[in-house]
Amino acid sequence: MRLAVEVDGDGIPQLRFPEPFNVAEYFIDRHIAEGRAGKVAIRTLWRDVTYAELVGNVNRFGNTLFKLGIVPGERLLMVVKDCPEFFFLFWGAIKAGVIPVPLNTMLRAKDFDYIIQDSECAGLVYSLEFGSEVEVAFARCSWRPRVFLPMEGGDQALASRARDASPELQAAPACATEDCFWLYSSGTTGLPKGVVHAHGDIVVTCRHFLDTTLGAGEEDVFFSVPRLFFSYGMGVAMNAPLWAGATAILDDRRPTPQIVTEIFRRFAPTVFAAVPTFYAGLLASGVLTKNDVHRLRRCLSGGEATPPDVQRRWLELTGVPTLEVIGSTEMLFIYMSNRIDDIRPGTTGKPVPGYQVRIVDDEGRDIADEAPGRLLVKGQSVMKRYWNNPEKTARTLIDGWLDTGDTFYRDKDGYYIYRGRSDDMLKVGARWISPFEIESTLIEHPKVLEAAVVGRHDESGLVKAEAWVVLKNPADASDTTAEEIRVFCKSKLAPYKYPRWIKFADELPKTATGKTQRFKLRTAPQNS
């Protein structure tokens, strides 16, 4: 099964796929032919799974879906923790022609209720620890999936049923542009949306980022703090190691600095991914040492922009720079990144080969360098559509360009700088301000762990910056500390940019993927 690479009229590499093409054959079956049957594909605290075992279990799970009456083209919701069975079910469904839909395991019953109804799924499989919310949703939902099973926990559980299924399965006929799997967007500003991806999309993301930008190989060991249901975590912890014939580390516990340090000491990952908040917390904990990261060679930071001070401190601790990256559920994985030999702190680097980006104004016209605007991106991994939402699809996908909703500008050297979500920008004194610029300054203060900035009206009805701050030591919260932080910002920012108000919080509201939900802070009660 050979993939061809051609260069289009704009000089952008494009992948050409054979026909037929079921992506499960490329990511699962080929490893046996390439001699990896005995190699460890997945490692957990409790067991190792070889590539031969992976192939056999993928086939068993696919055959089990057939026995349960789920047919090609139907949707299967997955509320499954990070474990080998996630791989077995996801790829078994794809190989059988069923469309897997991994869901955020931290959702509540009302969210599951909505997605069950919206997806019109034929089945739902869940890990037992999420059963309380999932079962409530199933009981009250007007749409009734024919199959509703726990992953484990008895003879009727999916994993138990799969043990007796055949380890042989012929891949369902498909093509690279055919519907393959869905992800639901995180819903930071509204109801989650079903994002439909095709069979070729995973290949495109791996070929362009892993091969040409990251540089990954069979010897690598991948570990991701973001979970598998999140496109970032799926890309690093599942798709990347399967593409490279490498090893994935999975841990279903809630990631803490102590647990992640334990993973480093036990499994010695070579490629590590986290969100900026986690990097900051890990650094603040002091538990990770230089000796714990002796095999580490690549670090990815995405989900939100990484403050330069966090990048600096991580490099000092580990000797390995963080690659600032950006991707999205709609593009599936990373489309812009710094390079290991070309890192500019405070920027998101340059487009990954295979992707094009533009910065435009509100009328869709290209903007000159050094001016902020909406970021558009184009590439072969772009979603096919939002499920059952043609109006939103039409607003987001225009002539093949995806409107990311992010504000960026490009500097004179061609590096792209994040300035927040388009609806997070502040206009103070007729001048636009990026919350991230202020947040990056706040986090440089030695007492500050995290920060988020929103706009607030002063007594004259004018918008000024308000900072919500999480301190490393909550006992430091005081008017004196607030003034100390305010003076610090004044010394580093233009006069109109410093935060007029400093609010202390135990934590910041975030999505499950680690993105700060600034809209919740904008509507928080005011005490001053």
Please tell me about this protein's structure.
This protein is of the alpha/beta class and about 525 residues long. Among the domains are: about 25-200, Rossmann fold (3-Layer(aba) Sandwich); about 345-410, Roll (Luciferase, domain 3), CATH 2.30.38.10; about 430-520, ANL, C-terminal domain (GMP Synthetase, Chain A, domain 3, 2-Layer Sandwich), CATH 3.30.300. Helices cover about 30% and strands about 25% of the residues. The chain is built from 15 helices and 28 strands. Strands 4-3-12-11-13-14-15-16-17 form a nine-stranded mixed β-sheet. Strands 18, 19, 21, 22 and 23 form a five-stranded antiparallel β-sheet that branches. A hairpin with a 2-residue loop joins strand 24 and strand 25. Helix 2 crosses helix 3 (about 85-95) and helix 7 packs across helix 8 (about 230-245). It is globular. The protein starts with a strand and ends in a 6-residue tail after the last helix. The model has no long low-confidence stretch (mean pLDDT about 90).
Question: What would the keywords be for this entry?
Answer:
528 residues; alpha/beta; Rossmann fold; Luciferase, domain 3; GMP Synthetase, Chain A, domain 3; five-stranded antiparallel β-sheet
